[in-house]
Amino acid sequence: MRLPALLYRVYERKLTRELIGAQIPHHVGVMLDGNRRWARKAGFENVSHGHVVGAQHIADLLVWCRAAGIGTVTLWLLSTDNLRREDDEVATLLQVIPDVADELSAPGTGWRLRVVGSMDLLPQAVAARLAAAELRTRDRTGLQVNIAVGYGGRQEIVDAVRALIDESVEAGATAAELAERVTIERIGEHLYTSGQPDPDLVIRTSGEQRLSGFLLWQSAHSEYWFCEAYWPDFRRVDFLRALRDYAARHRRFGA
Q1: Do 236 and 5 touch, CB atoms closer than 8 A?
Q2: Span 226-241, pLDDT tens digits
Q3: Which of 22, 79, 151, 231 could form a disulfide with 32 if both were Cys (CB 3.0 to 4.6 A apart)?
Q4: Is the pLDDT of residue 1 over 50?
Q5: Cα Rg for the chain, rounded, in angstroms?
Q6: Would you name the residues annotated as active-site residues?
Q7: Is 74 marked within a binding site?
Q8: Is 36 marked as a binding-site residue?
Q9: Structural domain of 58
Q10: What CATH number corresponds to the domain at position 125?
């Protein structure tokens, strides 16, 4: 074993020991960013290949989350902004993402999938494959994995409010009653992630330090951790460092 690899293993074990008995997030959101920049750095002519490599890394992250005792993970794979572009990158993503869902829903994996996003914005064949993958895992009790596809935080809030209004109108609510029904709790019940805890920790790779609309409503009290590594280079050591940093923070659910 080369010395750097040995030191890496030693450091990984050290971080693992430090997390024994520590505060662990129940729900982690991850922005898998930097695939194209990784591909350029690696010398690929077609930078979309970075998405293929990044997709192959997702199962590693889920194994790490399960081992750490995390219950829910939300992975942002494709935004509504991405879908507005018509280029090779989007075409690649629309091929890769259903393959990821099929692999995660395969027998023996144990992951329980939920697709979150505006499915009506996706090509019908893609939406159908994602729905089928989710259905195959509905009776599982393992790690909850939210696949955010065609996802935008503002659009999610709009969709939630519209669903609340539709529900209220169907119930025969008056305008005054409808106004009273628009509460934080009721809007939360109509979000894509309804019934799940809000994310305690949001991780973004690639060095960017912004949310870009990811889980806007749910992340009001989340802790954030930004990593310089591009997603395909994100290591278990990086993940453990994020958990250690989270465990050391004093969370304030207010100003």
Answers
A1: no
A2: 999 999 999 999 999 9
A3: 231
A4: no
A5: 19
A6: 33, 82
A7: no
A8: yes
A9: 25-152+198-227
A10: 3.40.1180.10
